[in-house]
Fold these 2 entries.
Entry 1:
Amino acid sequence: MNRPPGRSPRTAVEAAVEAARWAPSVHNTQPWTFAVTGEEISLRADADRRLRVADDEGREMLVSCGAALFTMRVAMRQAGYRPVVRILPDPDRPALLAVVTAGEPAEPDERTSVLVAEIERRRTHRAGFTGLPVPDRLVQALVRSAAAEGARLTPVRAPEAVAVLAALTQAAQGVQARNRRFSLEVIRWARPPGSSRTDGVPAGGYPLQAARTEPHFAQRDYAWRHRWGSTGADPGATDPGVVAVLTTGGDTREDWLAAGQALQRVLLHACAYGVSAAFHTQVLEMRHLREFVREELCSGEYPQMIMRLGVTFDAKDAVRRPLDDLLD
Ligand SMILES: Cc1cc2nc3c(=O)[nH]c(=O)nc-3n(C[C@H](O)[C@H](O)[C@H](O)COP(=O)(O)O)c2cc1C
């Protein structure tokens, strides 16, 4: 195919980097940088933004970067070029996570356009859902979306298993809240109301008072002793939604990047159907609890994300760093 009219590989590269800013990341750390050389983007992990306490191995950092990578791929495809991706291309440069090149020109397909339309609209939810149903057909389609990226999304249907995950989340949250190092790290990434910072979790990103779901899934305490949070939340939204676990067969850096790509594909796909996600990763930050979830609930696969999927009408704030801060 010839070059699409008005679109150069360079504009596709720019569109990809601009879109990647909007990927989800743990505590909105945005732990990535991009270097653009001609028609090529190098995605690097920014280790200064890794959570030293909660994420000593860098797993959540790489899941976050994987989400940015999927966003780049799909935005480049929308801009008229097939992305060519090399994952962890240089063993001597472990921070270099991927190199994405604008390959063959190609008209975007409908699925790509649908996903791209959600990149800036998608938001993390941090409360109960309305109880409007998430259609089973959509859940099955999300399972296929994750599989296409080399990960497995498993809806947790048995009430006993949902209760176990809720209880583990509560326990992990309790331990972390009582641990000074964990707490200080969460506070470090909490963005106070009116702050001009462009990273961290904004006070408009969670409710002042979240209604309890049944079973209750404990939220991170970003407001820590302050009366922060949005007041527009629906107090009647007490439905936990569909609980699901994203897993991978291995637990290498490649697996973490695959999990991140699968995560963002699932989130954008769900968002296109009016379904949002809440995350509860406290359990996965505690080695023994993660191992328990792996053995007891994930058939030996490695849990990379615990989430709830549902319908919400709450508006949420989002902040991102400007492009200039992200370019190497
Ligand atoms: C690996 C990973 C772990 C996360 N863990 C949590 C979590 O435990 N609790 C939570 O409320 N949000 C969690 N999030 C969501 C981020 O806080 C969110 O993506 C970030 O603040 C940006 O906001 P947005 O998703 O609304 O754009 C996680 C995101 C990622 C990628």
Entry 2:
Amino acid sequence: MPTKSGPDSQVFLERVRSFFLRRLPLRPDYEERPEQLEMALDVARALAEEELLVVEAGTGTGKSLAYLIPCLLWSFEHGQPVIISTRTLNLQQQLLEKDIPLLRQLLDQPFRATAARGWSNYVCLRRLDSQQNSQQLTPELAQEAGELAEILSLGASGVRQKLPVSDALWSLVQADSHACNRQLCPHYQECYLFRERREMERSELIIANHSLVMADVALRANGAQGILPKPACWVLDEGHHLEEVANDHLGRSLSLADLQRLRQNVFDPKGKVNDAGWLPLLRDRLSKADQRARLLECLDRGLLVSLPGFYQVGEEFFYGLTQSILAAGLTEVGARATLNSDFFHTPEGEECRRLSEQWAAHLEHVESGARDLHRLLTDLELEATQGGLVELQSLIERVKTLRANLEFCLFPDSGDWVYWAVATTNNATLGATPLDVGERLAAEFFAPARSMVLTSATLAVGKDLDFYEKRVGLDHHQNRVARRLLDSPFDYRQNAYLGVATDLMDPNRADFWERSSQALLWLLQQLGGRTFLLTTSYSSLRLARDRLAPALAQLGIRVLAQGQAPPGLLLEEFRRDSRSLLIGADSFWEGVDVVGDDLSCILITRLPFRVPNDPLVQAHCRRLEEDGLSSFRHYQLPQAILRFRQGFGRLIRSQKDRGMVLVLDSRLYHKAYGAEFLGALPACNRRAGRLAGLVQDAIKWLKGFDS
Ligand code: SF4
């Protein structure tokens, strides 16, 4: 409901409309898109009338310009930045490299648009300086540090993505909020991070990502200084990811990887780079200072001697945690296990607690050692150790956080949190996630915002946005929420074929591939690859790869399977040579764009219901059941419909695209809820039948279209 409607708001809307009708047609590749104008006017109204706008805009609406233009015009008028946040780097790059340069051409007025990044993306000049002066680096790292300093002195950006730097050196020189003395740092004026922060304050548009935005919310909630300027207005594109990112950042966790990073940064007694880290460097400085005996005694006794034991017991804890959750049969490698108080009464759980208590004692010891040294250095006011003081403060904060999170996550006594652990082949993580992240978003994110636009191509279940609004906490602000559903301008009736196999069930069943392989191989041969196969788990991904790859190789069709290379590289490979079948699980269901004939078919092996034994899924379902609601209807089904829409959405990415989606799960046909999945898709050519006949019909349709 609009809250501040008035003449000013109408004037602003007219200004936005005029831009779309007069300026936008000056683009050489201009296409009239009524949905785009409609969305732009909604965004303008949200800005002017202080609304929280939820807008689903189908593929092809041109939604980035639909929000960028009103945001920019609003910022010109009010002299305040608008923060635009995306989930993926791809979209962030598209905004910075394509849409914003286009806007510069269309506008008479210059403007600033700045990319916002987290601390660890910037080089810290103080740390680089210390490392270069330390004479503690290996010759290779010393040379690399010298080259980095040289490149920076020639005017390179201090952002990691644009610098040729190894992981080993970066861990020693990256910026860290706890290890920064800000205005007191001698490099403050030329510091890359703070230069960009100052630039951000003067910008009209700030291009951020959801992780950074949620990290900012978490910092402010803890009373700390935020990362982003305190803005009035926000746009969250790819807004369907908000709940998941908020879960990651508003929860608490600690991992073996955190411990390993700390070791690499502070002092690694066993590492490849002997003596790497700032602690030996500090020791070197102190060995030349007055009162060195007292200082070295404090440093050696409090830290240098105790750190190796601290790492070892920490590693034993994570190793024990892994063994315990696997031995207790709570989960398998790579999947999250619920940790509840029952688990801690089993022998495995008790062992886990025992190890955690041992590690907590080491954490306490290291923290107190770091505090003693910090106090002593502060009292002695040794100028040469200013950098050391900041690093010590950072160590104290990191160890304190590890200890607090360890204690919090291992005492699962609040019904408002979900406690979990996960082990992969080289990491183990212990965590706790708030059960109702929406409540926190409502209070800490939506309430202080002057206006907010949340947009994506998939937010609605059917034509209903309620599910999304509840999940992210917008239901707490009903009087400020405005809604809009905009269909895709693409012609699905003409260009898309949806086939449902009526004779197949679960791809994890032994006979699934025996019954489907022949028809699928024939289909892929006819298409010459050009197909994505989407699975709902890694086990069915592996099964599909093992069953199809040998026969496809004989047909000259490659199989690219998620996990064999990073997803971005796999996608590049597919685009380079589309005589391929790309098999993907989670990340390929969305955000993946292959335009044109290179992608003509999407195979969906199973309806994408979430894994029922995931701790968060279990906890949400349990809470709904306790409230007398069906968890299937109110949680699992809407989640799966949204995912299904995302998978279907990979097919048609431009006006000219055409192709088929074949669903190999007959529940879509036989079950009553199948109609709700189908009802959520745009109208297109739909068929159902046995797979063998279906693939022939689909190819006939495609060829008929071709001729
Ligand atoms: S201001 Fe902070 S981040 Fe920047 S160089 Fe100094 S210590 Fe590093």
